[in-house]
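Researcher: Please predict.
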Amino acid sequence: MATRDGAGTLAKVLDAYCRLAAPEGGWCLLIVDNGSRDGTVALLESYAGRLPLRCLHEPRPGKNIALNHGLEAALAQPGADDDLFIFTDDDAIPSSDWLRQWHACATAQPGCSVFGGAITADWAVEPPPWLLKLAPLGLTYGVTSPSLPDGPVFPGLVWGANMAVRRAAFAAGHRFDTSLGPNGGAYAMGSETELTRRLAREGYRVWFCNGPRVAHHIRAAQVRLEYVLQKAWRFGRGRYLQETPGKFAELLGVPRWMLKRYLLELAGLARALLLRDADARFWRRWELACLRGYLYQARRGRHRRGKHVLVTSYSGELGGMELRMAQEVRYLHAAGYDGGLALRRFDGIDAWARRLAAEQISVAEFAAPPFFEGEWGRRHLHIARARWLAARRLRAFDADLVHVALCWTNYGASMLWLAHYCRLPSVISVHNAFPPVSFSAWHQGLLRQAFSTVRGIYAVSESALAHFMAIYQPYILATTRLAVIPNGVDVQRFQPSAAARGAARERLGLPAEALVIGAVGRLSEQKRPGKLISLFAMLRQRFPDLYLILAGSGPLEAASQAQVARMGLTPWVRFTGFVDAVEQVMPALDLHLLMSRNEGFGIATIEAMACGVPAVATAVPGSVDILRDSEGGMLVPVDDLTVAAYRVGALLADPERRAVMGRKGRDEAVERYCERVVGRQVRAFYDGLV
C-alpha cells in the first residue's frame, strides 16, 4: 500500500487489519509513505506492535513511484515465485477473512498470476439516484459489479484497491508505469490497469475472485457531478498514455479520428439539451470530458524520461540486428533518454513486443514506403506515399532523433530520407559488411538529402564501417560523428557453468561425456547451415561420439533437416528451433562454429566466449574483427572445408587447449563486450547529438 496524507482513513483501515484472520504461511503488511505531511507517519508508528508491519518512505510524489519502491524492498526478501503480492489503498477496509480468501483463490488457480478481488462502495453520504443509474462506477470509484462471477476477466476490470499479482511477474522485471496514477496533482488515470493489461499481453492469465472483499470509502465530495466529470477527464488522459506512439494519423497534434468523435459528441449534447433528456445529457458530457482529457494529453505529449529517440529499420525478421535495436533502447533509457522501436511487421514480432512490454519498451508497426529498397518501377509512387502518408506517421512519434539501423546495403535508406523530409536529425548504425553497390542519379540526389541531417554513424565492427564508408563516403558530411561500437553480451546471463552444461545436455538428450559442436543463429543462406552439416559429417569420421546442435529457425530449416537425413546423421544432430534463452543451450557445446558467408558482427560468437566455449568462425569481415587477435577462438577458411575440418579436428582432440581458449574468451568478453562497456560507448556516441 502507498499512502500520502492518509491519516483521515488509515486508522480505520489499520484497525480492520488488526482483526484479520491470518492465512496459511503468515503475512506481512508493507506500507510506503509517499511524503505525507499530516499525522500519517506517527499513526503508522503507533501500530508497529500490533501488526506485522514494515514502513518505507518515498519522498518523490507519485503512487506508482512509491509502489515500485515497495516492490524492490519486497523482492529483496526471500520468497517463492507463486507468492502473492496483494495491493490495496489506504481507504479500503477489508473483511476479516480477506487474506484467507486470497490464499484460497490463489491456491485454486495455480495457472493464474493476476487476480482481481471484489470491491464494494462505502458511501460517506447517500449517493444521488442519477449517480447509481448513470455513472460508470468502476472507472469513477474502482468498485466491481456485484454480478461479476469468479472466472477469467478482462484485465482492465482489475482495480487497484483489491488486486493481487504473483511474485514471479515482478521478478521478471514488470513494474508500475510512473507516468500514470496519483502524483499530488491532476493526474492521468490508469495506474493499475496499465500494469494488468501489460501483464495480460505478456501471457499472464487474469482471474476474478469474489471471495476476497474490501469496502472502498467514497467521500462526500466524490459524489458530485463535477468530480465524476473530472474522473472522466483523467481517464481520457490515461487512455492516451496507454496508446502506442504513432498509432494514428494526426491533425493539429491530435489523432484525426478523435477530433471527428468530439464533434459528433458535441452534436449529441446539443440534441440532448433540445430534447431535455437528462440521461443523454450526462452521458454526452461524460464522453466529452473523456475526449477533452485525451486531447489535452495528446497536445501535452507523453511522459518522457528525456529526449525521445525513435529506433527503426527496414526489418524483415527477428535476428541479431533487431535484438541490438532493443538493446539500444535499454542503453538509451539508462542514459536518461526516452526511446522506442518502430518496425515493419514480421513473423514473431507480436510475441517479441509482448516480452519487451515487460520493460516498458514500446514496439510500433511502421515502415517507410520502399522507394530505395523496392522495385524500380514503383519508386515514384512510393516516394509520393512517403511524403503524403508516412511523413505524418513519423511526425506522430514526436521524436527528437531518428536512429536508422541498416542491415544491408540500402535497406533503411528510405526511412533515412523520410527523417530528413520531416526535418528530424538522424543517426545510423551499420550491422553488416556491405558489398559494393551503385546508385542511379535519382537515388544519388535523395541520398545527398538524406545524409544532410545525419549527425552520427556507428558500425558494429571496423570492417562494417570500412565497407559502409566505401559506398557512402561521397554523401557523408565532414561534421558527422563516426564510431565503432560492438554488440554487447550480458556476461551475468552468459557465463561458464558446469551445472548449466549438464542441464543443457540433459534437455537436449546428449551424453554427458560426448563431444558437442553447434551453432546458434538463423538457418539462412548467410549462415550456411549446409556447410556446417558437411563439416560435421567430415569430423564424425574421426570423432564417432560427436554431436551437432543447430539452434535457430529460418528458411533453410527444412532443407537442413533433409540434408541431415540424406547423410544418415539424424541420430547425432539436434534441431532446437528458435531459442529465446540461448544461455540454456550454449553451455552444452565444446565448440561454437559460425560458418557464415558474411557477418557484420557475430553476436553468437561473443555469447559463446562469455560462456567459456571456444568460438570458431569463417574468416569473413565481422567475425575477423572479433577473432583475428583473440585468444578465445580461431578463424577457418570460408570455402575450404578440408582445411576447416583439419583445424577444428585438432582443437576437438586437444581438451587442454579448449579449456585455455574458453578462459581467455571469457576474459575478453567481460573486458570488451559486456553491456557495461558497450553501454558506456553508446552513451558517449549520443552525447551532444540529441
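Model: Residues 542 and 649 are 8 Å apart (CA to CA).
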